[in-house]
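Cont'd.
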Amino acid sequence: GAGVSQTPSNKVTEKGKYVELRCDPISGHTALYWYRQSLGQGPEFLIYFQGTGAADDSGLPNDRFFAVRPEGSVSTLKIQRTERGDSAVYLCASSARGAYTGELFFGEGSRLTVL
Amino acid sequence: AQKVTQAQTEISVVEKEDVTLDCVYETRDTTYYLFWYKQPPSGELVFLIRRNSFDEQNEISGRYSWNFQKSTSSFNFTITASQVVDSAVYFCALQGGSEKLVFGKGTKLTVNP
């Protein structure tokens, strides 16, 4: 498709389980971002990739959260030992070069529910 | 620290009314960008505008207009002659010094027929 694609759209898991969320950015976009949006809140920055490397991971809340982008395209956000507080919508965005030089295009998000 | 405040949590108007969404920001950066995004029920954030800190000209795009005032650190968004399709949550965001966008909590706009 033409836009940012995120899978799964919905994920329900039990506390303590491992979860992977996938983001397929717009083709050719070198910059990729993960944000987390809790109910009634604005999106909060998690991590930014430029190419394959994480240029800024200052938003990751703790070491249970990890993200990779091995080939500079698809990215996976990994959450270990999930907690109920991890429940949120995880948004992915991509940009041709970066937010300073262009707009971010967001996906529809992956809604994570931790029971 | 950077901060964006959208004091209006929810606004409800009747179709064809004009409505202004307020955004106040805080930053120590001299160069920064301000954004507005629309989030319809589908959840996808839709880019509306980006404005850099050196450009205080107001902008109009169809029924949408934006008023940027550095003196009051505000970047307000007005929808003229609102329509039901304008119903969504609108977010103001700030970017300065890094690629990170800092979002406000959003304003939920409901336009009733």
